[in-house]
Amino acid sequence: MIAHPRERISAAEFLERPESNRLVQLIDGEIIDMASPTPEHQMVTRQTVVVLIPPAQARGGQVLFAPLDVELDDGNVVQPDVIVLLPESKCQIGKTRLHGAPDLVIEVLSPGTLKIDRRDKFRLYERHGVREYWMIELREPLVEVWTLQDGRFVLLDAYGQDETFTSPLLGAIEVNKLFPI
Fold first, then answer.
1. Are 93 and 79 in contact, with CB atoms under 8 Å apart?
2. Element (H or E) spanning 55, and its range?
3. Cβ distance 67 to 79 under 8 Å?
4. Confidence (pLDDT) at 4
5. Low-confidence spans in the chain with pLDDT less than 70
6. What are the φ and ψ backbone dihedral angles of 124, each rounded to 5 degrees?
7. What pLDDT score was predicted for residue 11?
């Protein structure tokens, strides 16, 4: 049996597709169609947005969330769970999507997206200059915080229940507040 390479498309071709509520992303030119998130995933995403709005707004920024396309380059259009944009952001808000690397990207990890979030998106976010990347683990609960230093992500640390960490971009964050009671 001969393995055939998958067809690659550009961001322009990907973005010509009809609007959808499905979580569909383009990673390295390949369309990745993902299952809908679980209720727990959505509750943690919602709670994270609620927690981050005040510190982001205090810095003149804003918090956005999926589904929303972020076009990183001609082969990559992703939909992070939570996006934070600060006034000095390289990311521009377009009419139908964001263009460029957001300041802070948060992915709530699911079994079906674990490899993509930990490997593929990690590398994309690092390469494109996302300043801070959080991965929220539902099973623990745990938050891994990565910060960009000299073009590479460096693990700030992993934080669990009853811990508070200092986000370089947003200040003190209580882990318990990211998870609904």
1. no
2. helix 39-58
3. yes
4. 44
5. 1-6, 181
6. -60, -50
7. 87
Residue pair 132/103 in contact (Cβ under 8 Å)? The answer is: yes
| pLDDT, tens digit (0-9, with 9 covering 90-100), for 105-114 | 999 999 888 8
Alpha carbon distance 120, 173 (integer Å): 26
For the chain, what's the residue count? Answer: 181
CA–CA separation, 147 vs 149, rounded Å? 6
Q: For the segment 69-89, what is each residue's pLDDT rounded down to a tens digit?
A: 999 999 999 999 999 999 999
pLDDT at 6: 59
Residue pair 140/158 in contact by the 8 Å Cβ criterion: no
Q: Hunting for tokens 């079906």 — which residue is that?
A: 112
Q: What is the pLDDT of residue 147?
A: 98
CATH number of 11-178: 3.90.1570.10
Structure tokens at 99: 């263009």
Does a cis peptide bond (omega within 30 degrees of 0) precede residue 67?
yes
Where are the strands (E) in the chain, listed by range? Answer: 23-27, 30-34, 62-65, 70-73, 76-78, 82-85, 92-93, 98-99, 104-109, 132-137, 142-149, 152-160, 164-167, 171-174
